[in-house]
Amino acid sequence: MARVVTITSGKGGVGKTTTTANLSAALAQLEKKVVCIDADIGLRNLDLIMGVENRIRYDIVDVVEGRAKIRQAMIQHKLMPTLHLIPAAQTRDKSAVSPSQMVNIVKELRDEFDFIMIDSPAGIERGFQNAVAPADEVVIVTNPEVSAVRDADRIIGLLEANNRKLPMRLIINRVKPEMVRRGEMLSADDVVDILSIKLLGIVPDDESVLIAGNKGTPDPNSKAGTAFRNIARRLLGEEVPFMNLDGGTSILQRIVRLFGG
Questions:
Q1: Residue 60 to residue 74: CA distance in whole angstroms
Q2: For position 121, what pLDDT does the model report?
Q3: What is the CATH number of domain 3-258?
Q4: Domain locations in the chain as residue ranges
Q5: 71 Cβ partners below 8 Å, 6+ apart?
Q6: Cα(124)–Cα(10) distance, rounded to whole angstroms?
Q7: Residue 20: which H helix or E strand, with range?
Q8: Cα separations (Å) of 154 from 8, 124, 127, 169, 180?
Q9: Tens digit of pLDDT for each residue in 204-216?
Q10: In sequence order, what are the residues at sequence separation of 6 or more whose Cβ sits closer than 8 angstroms to the Cβ of residue 182?
């Protein structure tokens, strides 16, 4: 029975979709069967990062509206045969799929995969509700920056108000150790203290992520690749030490004041 993990964030710019692609690839490299669902209808990008954009025939709206079966819309990654994608529609808006329809799609896939990874649109509108509806767990992606952390805090508040009480964990993305050491960027400990949810992983700022995204193939030997592999192992229940990327915390008090601390 698949675990359904929704990956979300506040506003754009934190690398959420890249995180979905790289984490899904890391799980596939650990021999897990993974299907990604791009729930960002109208702003389809996950197919580009996974390198399958030229192979799309049908999308999730085609499935919902009966023009295709789920298997017809599903694309298998060429280099990782246990990794699949159901792409978003590019010419429709988020109202084309309802939360109940997303739940039904996921229900059809649960028995076939180990993980169903749902890439949520950034923000808190209809697409977010669609992506969260079938979730067993929510992973929130943020950068160690003021606006991104504040957005993440709002997402956490909305999820805590949800009667389902979904488990939440945090990925801190694009951490720059030299800026942390100089006290110019929040450390991972700072962000966890502010948001008060369990840390799943820390991903260093790494240009290889951009290069890999452009190629549609993750680089497992890069620093970021190692971080995503560690995060995948934690999702599987392993105890894996966190990368030590922390340093100074001189701006923590200013940030805490923004959250009423």
A1: 9
A2: 87
A3: 3.40.50.300
A4: 3-258
A5: none
A6: 7
A7: helix 16-29
A8: 12, 9, 16, 14, 24
A9: 988 777 676 666 6
A10: 247, 248
